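note to self — DONT lose this again. spent like an hour looking for the file last time. sequence + predicted structure for the chain T wanted, 635 res
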Amino acid sequence: MKKVLFATGIAIVALASVASAQGYQFTSNLTVGSTGPAVVALQTWLVANGYSIPSISSGAAAKGYFGSQTQAAVKQYQASHGIPSTGFFGPLTRAALNSGATGSVSTGAMCPAGYVCTPTGGTTGGTVTGGITTPGVPGIMSVSAGPLSSTVLNVGAQMVPLQTVRVQAQYSDLDVQSITLDLGNNTGFYNKLFSTIYVTDGTNVLATQSLNSSTVVQSGTNYILGVAGFHFIVPKGTYKDLVIKGTLNSSIDSTYIGTSSHVPGYSGTAVNSVGGAGSTSGWAIGVVQNGLRAVDGAGLNLYGPASALGQNFTINQSLVDNAQANISLDPSSPLVASIPVSDTTNGQYLGLPVLVFDVNAQNDALHLRTLNVNFSVNGGGTVGAAYLYQGSTQIASASISGNAASFTNISNGTAGASIPVNTTVPFTVKVDVTGVTSNTNITASTSLTQTILSSNDSTVSISGAAQGNTQTVAAAGPLFTLVGTPTITKSNISSGNGTDTLFQYSATFNVNIQAIGTNVLIGLPASTTNAFSASFGTSTTGANLARIYQDGVATSTNSSTAIIASYSQPSNTTLTSNTFTVARNQSVTVPVTYTFTITNPGAHTYSVQLEGINWNGSNLSNFMVDQPAWRTSSI
């Protein structure tokens, strides 16, 4: 039993008569030179409905050959039905004739398969216009070009936007039902570049049309494509965008790729002229004048645009061919630091992280096959081996020779370390430092000889590099780190007399001190003793251990005052001669506060940078110079 569907809020087509009494359904395109029963049926219908084919009406010629007179009759029919008058019997004209239209192309959607559709209300010309909420109201339509995010297309890309057509409705809802596209004057558009064209609402596909010599017809010097059979409702007082999309062939000859000089037929002028403007930079697509048809609430056909629209674009190589690796320093890469050896007995630090770099895969999935890392090493130690990690997994190792490590045995199968397309993967470089008798300075950086491959094992271009920060490895001594983020406050301490305003700034750093391999001596502030007995600076020499930044720029203290450092002996330490001792393998945290005053600061802002720490009397650790992590915010 067939199901019966009563139309309520959707547009459907009533059971329509077919194009001829015999119920002939046209399924193929016809043009000058066509022959066969479809031509006979078309000529029979045209003559019967008043479209003159003199040679057939007079009996001078038999039916079955599509000649110039038949073409003229088709043009007459098209003109009377609001179809572009090309004389080509294509999708738009077939749809009109198959629907049984006698006055205009019928509106409404086709009845769903398996249902008998019964129209209810709102009918016009035997069709249901339930999708339109303004029945009986004539409207006005404006058609213009809408925005397009990119005009560079890649070989093999699927359903990429080619043109946006903006349809604006006034007074009545509009039902957009067909569009005629201009593919330009170069056959390469449909037989070399694109396989399929889609009419979409931006997300959903409304209609699909394959591109070939049967669906594309020449009109003058250009080639056009008709797409029909869809319903796109634009409510009155609003506009909506139709997005024309296309799928490019997976393989395109290089002569059709790039700028106009690579396009066959280029001679300094437009090779793919569309919409009167043409494209001298590649290719174009457009909408012919009055090539978009919509039906208003009164059942009238409306056409636009008033003048042809055109959109230029360029065909680029495939994403795989355009794959690129972007290398940069990862934010987690170690900052400048002074680090004691982890093994004080043997004077070594095995597996010291010296560099974290990122590889971003652009346009294709990539894999890291080989990698060269350069090292700058000086001091009383040796850096003999390097290791490459992806996350917590070691994927390669290499001996360091001539201050360089070449990772050629990267694991992860034959493809190398994987970087999925449009993602960023961090890699960590660690080294073994041995024989440390005095400070050993190590700086690591990626070189420009990395081998990174695309998904088809082609070498890709590489952009950027990563330069690590210097890591100083000490034979024994303190490891200084910050606990939390340094803070700064500002308070008005003016007495109220005079015109000057005095502000006091207080910056606090919580410094953790870990004594590795030896005791570490830290001097306390002293107002009368030698300034260098204070580890964090005093009122007379504080500028060499802490510095004021004014408006983000390092400067000396205001002439009216100096930086004063204040801190005290932490518990569980011993005090001797104004110096406390952090015992070997002990760790303590010392809150250090720097205060200074500024007269009339105005709009200036200030911050404090901790630049050095004295320990064991004459040793200075100043790795934190210019490091933002050791600087307060500005107030």
